[in-house]
Write a structure and sequence with these properties.
The chain is mainly alpha-helical. It contains 16 helices and five strands. It has a three-stranded mixed β-sheet. Strands 2-3 form a two-stranded antiparallel sheet. Helix 4 runs parallel beside helix 6, helix 6 packs antiparallel against helix 7 and helix 9 packs across helix 10. The protein is globular.
């Protein structure tokens, strides 16, 4: 029954209208736990299109197999995609064991599709890895088998040319997921999104020519990006984290009362020539954010640096950043390197007004001519 429309379909009607697998897909997506199930007709119709498109994509990949990159997975994008496959298998297994079919569909199909699409964009000119795509198709087929068995058997036998039946193929065997690699990739993707928004804002904010006036010269186009990174919390943020570290129970994932934290924080700044109330206004939002994060992920959220090297991650993906932002030249620089800061030229005050911190790099964009003048 569909709560949104107040209508229902008999089993025979649903199969005739949507097919058995699309009906099962929508039933799995209808809801888990104690929530009222809601069979959404649009989900069933969308499932037909999704599954059909996936079959077409697999056929295209196998037909163009010779053009894919050979050898074992080796690039950063390969490792991230392989890790996402491992995570999908583990999370989907937990969901099936708990009879949470909607969660299983999310991790075993939707999330896996998103990871594949992101991998396709990240590879660029290097191309996707043949072995890794084969593994993806194999794993995705096995994960969706309990929900869409007819689709899975068609893919298994007709497209992947596997022996036997998908339903008897067994659960995929994968390695241990790497949460640090997943965090590093999220940091990379989030940074690219923020830098793209900043670049678009700077480009749209530049003076537009008046009606009838000549367009600005092409050499003023922003084609160079300088990304400044600070991998270590310092200043008042460092003091806040040290106070939180000393007032955190890692076993219970709980903090000391706010009064004790505020008193400890006050003692950190009492001997300094500063107005504690002003510092406190800066500290409180940061402390609340870090307390929530520590409760969710544990004491590592209170470390003074991220569990991965930010500069290494960004440098390893320079080509991706350059392509995603449409730039000609990109550099990743340390915010503490005097020579590196000098490259910012007249944009230097931006680094003082909005200094980078762990997880929050600062990008400066300029024209190729302006960058050349800084050298």
């Amino acid at each position: 029954m569909s709560k949104s429309t107040g209508n229902f379909r008999t089993l025979k009607q649903a199969i005739e209208e949507f097919s058995s697998d699309a009906t099962r897909f929508a039933l799995a997506d209808a809801g888990d736990g104690m929530d009222d199930a809601n069979f959404v007709f649009e989900t069933a119709n969308a499932a037909i299109l999704r599954l059909t498109k996936e079959i077409a994509w697999m056929e295209e990949v196998i037909a163009a197999e010779s053009s894919l990159r050979g050898g074992p997975p080796s690039t950063y994008a390969d490792n991230v995609f392989a890790n996402e496959i491992n995570i999908a298998v583990k999370e989907t297994e937990k969901s099936y064991n708990a009879f949470m079919f909607r969660d299983a569909l999310k991790s075993g199909f939707y999330d896996l599709q998103l990871a594949r699409d992101e991998y396709r964009l990240s590879c660029g000119s290097a191309g996707m890895n043949r072995e890794l795509l084969g593994r993806f198709m194999d794993v995705q087929t096995r994960l969706i088998t309990p929900i869409c068995p007819h689709y899975a058997e068609h893919v298994w036998q007709k497209i992947l040319k596997k022996e036997g039946f998908a339903i008897k193929a067994g659960w995929p065997v994968v390695g241990t997921p790497d949460p640090t690699l997943r965090s590093a990739n999220k940091y990379l993707q989030d940074s690219i999104v923020l830098m793209r928004k900043l670049l678009q804002k700077q480009e749209s904010g530049s003076k537009k020519p008046k009606k009838g006036a000549a367009a600005p010269p092409a050499e003023n186009k922003l084609t160079v990006g300088l990304i400044y990174v600070n991998e270590h919390y310092d200043g008042w943020k460092e003091q806040c984290l040290r106070v939180l570290q000393s007032n955190f129970d890692s076993q219970a994932r709980s903090f000391a009362p706010d009064e004790e934290i505020n008193e400890a924080l006050k003692n950190c700044f009492i001997d300094r020539e500063t107005n504690f109330k002003q510092v406190q206004k800066l500290c409180m939002p940061f402390i609340r954010f870090k307390k929530d994060e520590a409760r969710n992920v544990g004491p590592q959220a209170l470390n003074l640096k991220l569990p991965f090297g930010e500069i290494d991650v960004l440098k390893e993906n320079l080509e991706l950043i350059r392509r995603q932002l449409g730039l000609e030249h990109v550099e990743v620089l340390s915010a503490f390197d005097g020579a590196a800061r000098a490259k910012a030229g007249r944009h230097g005050p931006v680094l003082d007004k909005n200094p980078p911190s762990p997880g929050e790099p600062v990008a400066i964009f300029m024209s190729k001519e302006e960058f050349g003048a800084q050298k």
